[in-house]
Each structure stands twice: as structure tokens, then as C-alpha cells.
């Protein structure tokens, strides 16, 4: 039987085998929520890069560039890290380059060893679960965390995916059980459950409550971003 595992932070990724696995990267506040939203609204591709320098180089080649560090937009770039910025009609058909504090770094770490890299959020949870049921590979959910530390919202997402797939995948490791139990404890009111988490406090100080509420909504879109070469595109 296929297995589903959870890596609570990219700093623990070296402890996990990626050989036969699809890696699902989750950075709920806010990178992967932006990616799902952008592709759902008609952005053609999103190229995730680890560094600001790589992002700037792609911007010079004509990409629209999004750069975030410490939850703030980096000066000189086109887009920030709010999902609402990815809903603009002016972005339809465009190529976007993106770098964020945690999420794009996680994708960079995953792509070296994984069979495929997909992007998960609460926003596309059902579509993602359906896609993964159809695959013959094991799954590793890679929580982006915050600067190497685990965080609540990404772990909750991992638990939600584990809960959705528990009949088709073996949940072997304690990190999966922790995530699944945490999700089942908080699923009836996710915004309240994460209310005093570190990332929520960080975003609230910046006045970004609407991004938090938005990113905790389930199944808004049926888009599954998948990495093809260096670009995330909508899986069809």
C-alpha cells in the first residue's frame, strides 16, 4: 500500500526518502495559497526560486516578479505575497517569478529528489487529494514552516490531506499522526484554532487578517499546481 508521510519543516527533509515520492509543498500563509489562486485566475506559470537574485534575473527577462521576505514585499518587485494580488485580470496569461521566505525554498529543496512536486493549500485540498489518489507513488507533505521551525497552519494542512487520504494511504510516522490529530481537533474552526499562532500574529501586525481568513477556506479551486521543469503550471 502507498504511504503518506509528513515532513514538519524543510530542515528535516534530509531525514526523509524522496525516491518514490510525490512531494506536496504547503506554505499556507501565504505562498502556496498565492500559487493556487494565481493559476486558478489564469496566470500561465509561476517559477519559484529560492533567492531574491534569481527572481530579479527573471524579472529582467520580462517575468512579473514577486518577492517576499519576513512577510513584506521586497522593494523593486511587481507583486507581494497576498493571494488577492494574484486575482488581477491583468495577470492572465503571464509568467510570474516568485521568491518567498519559506515556500519557494521548500520547493527548491524538494525538486532534486522527488518524482513530482505539487503545491497544496486548503484552497485546493479536494482536487489535490483526488489527483494523489490516482498516482501510484508515495506522498511526502513538506510543510514550509517558518525559518526552519514547524508551524501550526502548514501542519494542519498536512493533517487535512492525511485525513482525506487515510483510506488509500498508510499513515505510518508520528509526524503524520500528529498532523492528522491536530487537524481533527481544529477542523471545525480553523481560524480560531490558529488565532494565536506565530505566523498569524506576524501577519496581523501587518494588517493582513483577510489573507489569513481567505487562506483557511477549503476547496475554492480545482487547480493542482505541478512543477514542470522549473515552472509551476496547472495540472490538467
From TrEMBL:
<keyword id="KW-0460">Magnesium</keyword>
<dbReference type="GO" id="GO:0050545">
    <property type="term" value="F:sulfopyruvate decarboxylase activity"/>
</dbReference>
<dbReference type="GO" id="GO:0050532">
    <property type="term" value="F:2-phosphosulfolactate phosphatase activity"/>
</dbReference>
<comment type="similarity">
    <text>Belongs to the ComB family.</text>
</comment>
<dbReference type="GO" id="GO:0000287">
    <property type="term" value="F:magnesium ion binding"/>
</dbReference>
<dbReference type="Pfam" id="PF04029">
    <property type="entry name" value="2-ph_phosp"/>
</dbReference>
<keyword id="KW-0378">Hydrolase</keyword>
<dbReference type="InterPro" id="IPR036702">
    <property type="entry name" value="ComB-like_sf"/>
</dbReference>
<dbReference type="InterPro" id="IPR005238">
    <property type="entry name" value="ComB-like"/>
</dbReference>
<protein>
    <recommendedName>
        <fullName>Probable 2-phosphosulfolactate phosphatase</fullName>
        <ecNumber>3.1.3.71</ecNumber>
    </recommendedName>
</protein>
Amino acid at each position: 500500500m502507498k504511504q503518506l508521510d509528513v515532513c514538519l519543516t524543510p530542515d528535516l527533509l534530509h531525514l526523509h526518502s524522496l525516491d518514490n515520492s510525490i512531494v506536496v509543498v504547503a506554505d499556507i500563509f501565504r505562498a502556496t495559497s498565492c500559487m493556487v489562486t494565481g493559476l486558478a485566475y489564469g496566470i500561465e506559470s509561476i517559477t519559484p526560486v529560492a533567492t531574491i537574485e534569481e527572481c530579479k534575473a527573471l524579472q529582467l527577462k520580462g517575468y512579473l516578479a514577486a518577492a517576499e521576505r519576513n512577510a513584506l514585499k521586497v522593494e523593486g518587485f511587481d507583486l507581494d505575497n497576498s493571494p488577492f494580488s494574484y486575482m488581477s485580470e491583468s495577470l492572465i496569461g503571464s509568467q510570474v517569478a516568485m521568491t518567498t521566505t519559506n515556500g519557494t525554498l521548500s520547493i527548491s529543496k524538494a525538486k532534486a529528489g522527488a518524482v513530482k512536486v505539487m503545491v497544496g493549500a486548503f484552497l485546493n485540498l479536494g482536487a489535490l487529494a483526488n489527483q494523489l489518489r490516482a498516482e501510484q507513488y508515495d506522498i511526502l507533505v513538506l510543510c514550509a514552516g517558518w525559518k526552519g521551525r514547524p508551524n501550526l497552519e502548514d501542519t494542519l494542512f498536512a493533517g487535512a490531506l492525511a485525513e482525506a487520504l487515510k483510506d488509500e494511504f498508510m499513515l505510518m510516522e508520528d509526524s503524520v499522526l500528529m498532523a492528522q490529530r491536530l487537524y481533527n481537533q481544529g477542523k471545525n474552526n480553523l481560524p480560531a484554532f490558529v488565532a494565536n499562532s506565530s505566523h498569524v500574529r506576524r501577519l496581523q501586525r501587518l494588517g493582513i487578517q483577510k489573507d489569513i481568513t481567505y487562506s483557511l477556506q477549503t476547496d475554492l479551486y480545482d487547480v493542482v499546481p505541478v512543477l514542470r521543469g522549473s515552472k509551476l503550471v496547472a495540472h490538467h
